[in-house]
Amino acid sequence: MQRQRTTTAVAKPETNGTASGLVATHRPHHAALLVSCPDQKGVIAALTTLLYGLGCNVLESDQFTDAASNQFFQRIYFDYSDIITGVGNTPILERAIADLAARFSLDWKIAYSDRTKRVAVFVSKMDHCLFDLLIRRKSEELQCEIPVIISNHPDLKHVADMFGVPFVHLPLNKDLPDGKAQQEAAIEAVLQEQNIDVLVLARYMQILSPEFCSRHATHTINIHHSFLPAFEGARPYHRAHERGVKLIGATAHYATGELDAGPIIEQNIARITHRDSIADMIRKGRDLERLVLARAIRWHLDDRILVHGNKTIVFED
What we know:
Elements: E1 2-7, E2 14-18, E3 21-26, E4 30-38, H1 43-53, E5 57-66, E6 71-79, H2 90-104, E7 107-112, E8 118-123, H3 128-138, E9 145-151, H4 157-163, E10 167-169, H5 179-193, E11 198-201, H6 210-215, E12 220-225, H7 236-243, E13 247-254, E14 264-271, H8 278-301, E15 305-308, E16 311-314
Parallel strand pairs: 8-9, 8-11, 9-10, 11-12
Antiparallel strand pairs: 1-5, 2-3, 4-6, 4-7, 5-6, 12-13, 13-14, 15-16
């Protein structure tokens, strides 16, 4: 496995906070190109030559070759302000990339920095991840808009109100045989109405159907403690304390139809000793969940993640 990285200093976009998310006042004409293909000669040269020929300037280039699968992965972040076709004519750029992709059997996607991603945050009753994400958005640490918070309980509406974000309460009616289907249909309607790009399950304590997860598998991020599968279900910290664990952790991953088995984006751990009470463990666990979830979301928003099978390649910032 080999990895190389080159970077050039990049100016961050200017943003203003609003009641419905971050709104860009000035965003440079930057784009991130993510590619993967069988490892072969000439891919890097072909991509950079193409961008240079169109008048683009490469700002960052990060690549990785997985020798075990013979797969090549690359992220190129570039400035297309001086593209010869004009900044408003990106379809020509994309056609050129598509032609090159056919030559090298490339899978690719491109994301433009002037198109701010819209995030829907799903919560239940625990507020630590929600507060953290809203503060990071407000302080412009997360470059996104959060136009809606969706919950199966009304408990956290006051948090949404504090930050001026609309709160949609969509409970599950367990008395109806199709209660889950109705609830998820209502969720889908909100997502479509708000033109949502990313779903964040910020301690959303309700299992989503495999069909729902499959529809949103590439853009749904979940966070949970890293006791799975040893301490599944309720009160995991209590059972971990009884067991005398010495490490606790948090995992952020893409949510798929296999519940907590989706591709892992980020993990972190903290040491536990005999002196730590259950309350100490819960506090440390929540700290980890905040940090791990924020990192995973930031990397996704910045288009730094490629999924290969059930693994991720993360080009960290």
